[in-house]
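Our consortium's second objective concerns turning raw sequence data into structural hypotheses that experimental partners can test. To show how far this objective has progressed, the report includes one record in full. It was chosen at random from the queue rather than selected for favorable results. The single chain below, 325 residues long, was entered without modification.
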Amino acid sequence: MNQDQTRMLEEAVRRLDDNITGILIQKDGETRYENYFHGYSAENAAHVYSVTKSVFSALIGIAIEKDLIHSVEQKVLDFFSDYKVLPNEKTIQHITIKHLLTMTAPYKYETEPYLLFFTSPDPVRAALDLLGGEKPIGAFHYAAIGGTHILSGILSRATGQSVLAFAQENLFAPLGIRVPNDIVIRSEEEHGRIMNDPNTRGWVVDPRGNNFASWGLFLSPREMAKIGQLYLSGGIWECRQIVPAAWIAESTREHSRAVELGNLAYGYLWWIIDSESFAALGDGGNVIYVNTNKKLVIAMTAFLTPDVKDRIGWIKTEIEPLLSY
């Protein structure tokens, strides 16, 4: 980039919310811009909130490729033979992995009970207890915590490993992503300290040792960009197929649509922006953005703050035009 483009890009970054801790922009596999704020550096990771879901999606694809999970059409209850279904509960028996991946599973609540999940001694079972009910299967219903956490239980049961161990072996180590350990949070005070410490690295676990598939992963912008570049390249990293190309294609095409959330399309735990771009989106403005036509990957980390600006709109209107050559 020339000096004028760099200056305009830096001005565009300054117009964003003041909660960004890091941003990295790659085009054609080369870094065009990288910067850090609020005491963070390239070595620091941040809690990426629901970006965790999209990273976790890759693990389901890898498990299917290894035939540890047979297909997305497998029933959820296939993996929980010890779960006792109430006599009058029928819906849960028809819910599949695909319904959880596409946010089209129904639940027995109007507002997701976060406190219940965070205080439960077994959040996977608590989520199963709320799965199903009277609502129809197939309608989009964004489950921020519970639905995706059921997938964590499925993956660990299918592989015989913790989610983190499976991820380290099959995704993180090949890409050089450092997620060294489980993170145990014992109190609200500890939660605040861990989430706001630039030196935190790892993946949060529930009281049963299940890594949360819906949140809790700490990554740096460089590591997030590796995930984006992996998806841009059809799952290939350094001449090795890490994630099946067919899985990436399926994950990043529309399977459902969030009419009440900006009418965005949804894939397998990835948001589909338009015909050429998709994104992992987390609270606070954490983003992995991929534009397949422009060969563009943008990764941003940020700490949680309310009412952040639309990151995708900002990318589309202010960043892509600067990188259109």
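The partners drew two points from this record. The longest strand covers residues 20-27. The CA atoms of residues 205 and 211 lie 4 Å apart. Both points have been shared with the crystallography group to help prioritize constructs.
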